Amino acid sequence: TPSSGTGGSDRIATTLTSALPFPLVPKHGSPARKPKYPPPPVRLRYRSGGTRNRSARCFGSPVPPVPEMAPSGTASAEGSPGTTIHVCQSGTCLSKGADATLVEIEELAGLVGGNGCGVEPTGCLGYCRRGPAVAVAKKGARPRYFVGIKTPEKSADVVERATGEKLPPLEDLPAGARARMETARASKRIEYLTSAYRWNEALACLLEQASRQPTRDPGLEQTTREILRQVGYGDLSGGLSLTEMPASVSGYVPWTLVSAEAVSAHSAVFRFETRDPKRGTPHPRGRGRMPNPVTWHTTMLGAVGANPEGPLPWIERDYTPISSALEWERGRCSILIKIYGDGALTQWLVEHAAGILGGGGSEPPVRVWLSKPVPTLSVPSLVPATSNGDGAPLPGSVLLLLAGTGIVALPQVLAHREPHRFLGISTPRNSQLRCPIDVVHSCREDDLLMLPSIGEWCLEGTRPHPRFRGIRRYDLLVTGASTTDPPFSGCVSASGGRDPWALVQGGLPPNATVHRSRRLTEEMVGEALGRAVRPCRVVVSGPDAFNEAARSFCLASGLVEPGQVTVLAA
C-alpha cells in the first residue's frame, strides 16, 4: 500500500557529492570489484508454539491497546522461565532493521543468562508501520507487544522486561558484544534493502550512517560506490547529478503503460507491457533447476524527482500484480492500485496517466520501472518465502482474511490450483493447493474490487471436481463509503458497463454471502475457523489496523496457533 509523501526536501541534496560527508572519487590502480548484491535470502525457522492471545478485540470497536514503545528505564522483575521473545522478520520490519534487532536481543539475553527466556524470529505481528516489532510471550499471560525497537537501548529494555533482570550499562558491555551489535545495526538493514532492490532507501541509510561517523569510513565509501553503480550512476568524475533518471537500474526494467481503467471510485487497474528479456520470472527454472512455487510481488519506481525518502530521483513501492506469472513471462502485467490523495507515487502515476484514464492516449508514452519478481509466500504452506516453508505443515484448508486492496493476494493463491494453466510450470501434486479455500473480504461500498472475477471463482467452487477449484465460501463485508473525495467519481466497471454494486445487488453464487454495514468481528472469525479443515493456514492482508485486529481474533478463537497465521506486511 503506498504511503503518504510529498515531493521535495531541503534535507536531501540534489547531488550526492553535496549530501555525503566524504568525497566520492574514483579509485585508481584497482579494477572495480563486482558487487555482491543481492545477498542470499535469510533462512528463518517458524514454530507453531507460543502463547495464545485471548483478548476479545473487535475491528470497528474501541481501538485495541497500543503496543508499548519500549521506554528506557528500570525494568520490573516480571521475567519467568518459559518466556519467549518473538522478533518480527516481515519485509517491512526487515527494511527498518529488524534483523539487527534480533541480533541485539540475542546478544543481550545471553549476557543475563536468558533466565529461561528464548529468542525466536517470527512472521508479521501486524504492526508494520511502527516496526521493528517485538512480542514477549509468557505462559498463561497475554503477549506484550513493543514497537519501534530501532536502537540497542530499546532492545535492552525489552530484554529487561522479558527476563526481569537489570542489564549493565551498554557502554560497559564486553567489547565483542558491542561491536557485533553495532556492525549488525549498521549493515543488516542495508543488506535487506539491496536484496529487495530498494536502492533509494538503502542509499538514504548509508547517508544517515555516514553522517554519524566522526571520520571517513572506507567501507561505507565502497558500499556507496557499489550501490551507485547498481543504479546507473557509475561515473563519479566531475560531480554526480541525481536530478535525472539513469539509463539502467539493476534489478529493474522499463515497462510502458498501455491502458488504465478505473474499477471503483478509488482504485484503478494499470496494465503494462515490456519486451525486455531482463524482466526475470517469478519461477526461475531450467538447466536441471525445478521451479519453486511462490506468490510474488514487484517494486515500482516512480520518477517523482527530489523526495524526502532518499537522494535518488524516485520513490519505491511494492505491489502485488493481479495478472498471472505466465502473463509476466509474456511481457504483460496488470496491477490494481488504490489512489491516495497524499500518496506520492499514486498521484504521480495518475497525473501521467490522465490521458489514458480518460479513454485517450498518452504522448509521450508513460514509462515506469518494475523490479524483477520478489517471492512473497511459499506454496503450499503459505508462509513467508524467506522461511522456505521449513517445518510448516501442509494446510488442510486455507482461510484468507482480506481488506481493501489486500484482495490482490487472492488471484495469486488461486493460480496454484492450476499451475500449468496460470503459471506455465508443472509442480508436484504436494506443491499444489488441493484444499478448500474460504475468503472473508472487507471493503467500503464505494471501493468494491474484483467482484466479477470473484463471482466466477465462487461458481467454480460449487461445481463437483475431483480436485478443489475456486473458492469454497466467500463472505463480503461492506462498510460505508469513504469520507475522502474519490478520484474516480461515477466510475462504472468494465463488466457489462455495470457498477460493481449492481453485481452484488443482482446476486452472487449461493456460496457467497454479503453482509451490509458490518465489520470483521471475533465471532465471525471463530465461525470461519470452525468450518475449516484442520490444520488451517490463515493469511491476513489489509491495512495495519485490520491486520492487527484479524490476527488477534484468530488467536483468541483458540483454533489456531500463532505459527498458523501469516500476516502480509502492509
Percent of residues in helices: 25-40%
Assigned CATH class of the largest domain: Mainly Beta
How much of the residues is beta strand, in percent? 15-25%
Taking all Cα atoms into account, the compactness measure Rg is: 24 Å
Unreliable stretches covering 5 or more consecutive residues: 1-15, 25-66, 70-79, 492-498
Number of domains: 2
Total count of helical runs of at least 4 residues: 16
CATH topology of the largest domain: Elongation Factor Tu (Ef-tu), domain 3
CATH superfamily of the largest domain: Translation factors
Overall 3D form: globular
Describe the biggest sheet?
7 strands, antiparallel
GO molecular function: oxidoreductase activity
Organism: Pseudo-nitzschia multistriata
Protein name: FAD-binding FR-type domain-containing protein
InterPro entries: FAD-bd_FR_type, FNR_nucleotide-bd, Riboflavin_synthase-like_b-brl, Thioredoxin-like_sf
Concise synopsis of the structure shown:
The chain is built from 16 helices and 17 strands. The chain has 570 residues and is an alpha/beta fold.
